[in-house]
Design goal:
Layout: E1 2-7, H1 10-17, H2 20-27, E2 32-37, E3 50-51, E4 61-62, H3 64-78, E5 83-93, H4 96-102, E6 107-112, H5 120-126, E7 129-132, H6 142-153, H7 162-165, E8 186-187, E9 190-191, H8 201-219, H9 221-238
Parallel strand pairs: 1-2, 1-6, 5-6, 5-7
Antiparallel strand pairs: 3-4, 8-9
The structure holds adenine (ADE).
Adenine is lined by residues 87-89, 132-134, 136-138, 141, 144.
């Protein structure tokens, strides 16, 4: 997977993503990260890339042309019209299904906006997906791009070791994962659930499944409702 990130702040992306599991995946060649500074494509002698909004109002708008040129420089290298994600609070909220689908691409262009946003005309020409990382407003798209790179990379073959890929499976089958414990057996007078010390794998599996259901009901009841609706829709189809 090759990520091509169009941004005004490449150092933010590079510092954030060249560590830990993703740093290792970059060094081992499973993913690559190329940042393009949109400012390098400014036609303005002061390297300005933003201007006042037509119609008035607060804030500045990123101009279409530097964004387009930055995009073209990347698209030319890829050799075809690439899947291009614009990170914006106006996008579809990212979820695990979208993450897994994006991981099937060979190249992903991620466009990060700033100020009040980007001139809509260039977005209409280049963007294939509008994606938000949650219903709140960030100062720019970079953190969104980093979240997306992290989540998608987990599904790129080779990025996670076997052990790592069985970790953090917090959203399997629309259920949150069961709680985890390690030594010591008692900590702050709290004991590890007895069944986990029993060595009885069937019982442990049953306990974990139930703990998953309870945790999901307590913390994310919306996931259970979704699962229930999907299962009802399937049953209706079968009838
Ligand atoms: N840029 C600003 N806010 C954002 C959000 N919530 N998700 C993605 N990109 C953004």
């Amino acid at each position: 997977m090759k990520y091509h990130i169009l941004t005004l702040f490449p150092e933010m992306i590079e510092q954030g993503l060249h560590t830990s599991i993703l740093g290792r995946a970059i060094n081992n060649g499973y993913i690559s990260l190329e940042t393009t500074n949109i400012r390098d494509f400014s036609a303005n002698k002061f390297n300005r890339v933003d201007d006042y909004p037509y119609g008035g109002g607060a804030g500045m708008v990123m101009e279409a042309e530097p964004v387009f040129r930055a995009y073209q420089s990347v698209a030319e290298k890829i050799g075809k019209k690439p899947r291009t994600v614009y990170l914006t609070p106006q996008g579809k909220v990212l979820n695990q299904t979208m993450v897994e689908e994006l991981a099937l691409e060979d190249d992903l262009v991620l466009l990060c906006g700033h100020y009040e946003g980007i001139d809509d005309r260039v977005l209409q020409e280049v963007v294939t997906d509008y994606i938000s990382i949650g219903d709140y407003v960030l100062t720019g798209g970079e953190l969104g791009a980093m979240v997306l790179v992290d989540a998608v990379s987990r599904f790129v073959p080779g990025v996670l070791s076997n052990e790592e890929s069985s970790q953090f499976e917090s959203l399997q089958d629309n259920l949150l994962e069961y709680p985890h414990y390690t030594r010591p057996e008692t900590w702050h007078e709290k004991k590890v659930p007895e069944v986990l010390l029993s060595g009885d794998h069937k019982k442990i599996e049953a306990w974990r499944h139930e703990a998953s259901l309870v945790r999901t009901a307590e913390r994310r009841p919306d996931l259970l409702e979704n699962a229930f609706q999907i299962s009802c829709a399937c049953n209706e189809k079968e009838e």
